[in-house]
Write a structure and sequence with these properties.
With about 120 residues, this protein is mainly α. Helix 3 packs across helix 5 and helix 4 packs parallel to helix 8. The chain is globular.
Amino acid sequence: IGMHILEAILQDDSGISNICSPVCDHLLKELMRTWDHLVTLLAVDQDFSPRLLFHVIRCYVLLCNNVGGYRIITEGLPDPIISGSFHDIAEKFPVIGSLLRQLLLTVGRTNNCILASESINLQV
């Protein structure tokens, strides 16, 4: 439920502006640390909760809509997202794969494994 609340806040202009404001910089950094830890755990046990991974990635994508959010994401995107650790889950759940590709392309971190699977899917 907490991730749904965060998504709703990030989808609202005033909500994302507040979270990404310099006054709340500590809040955003703590949120990023929490997500980093969560993504690392999900990379170890990918069967645990694909749905949770979906919501975390979606929150990263939503944060990219704000200049401050974009900056902090480009500086601290978790390694499992960048390294292709979620390749198998991205293939198993196309919606997660699509969000992951969108995030990586948005922040300029192309992941050849994830992008290659997209081109294969488009050719079929």
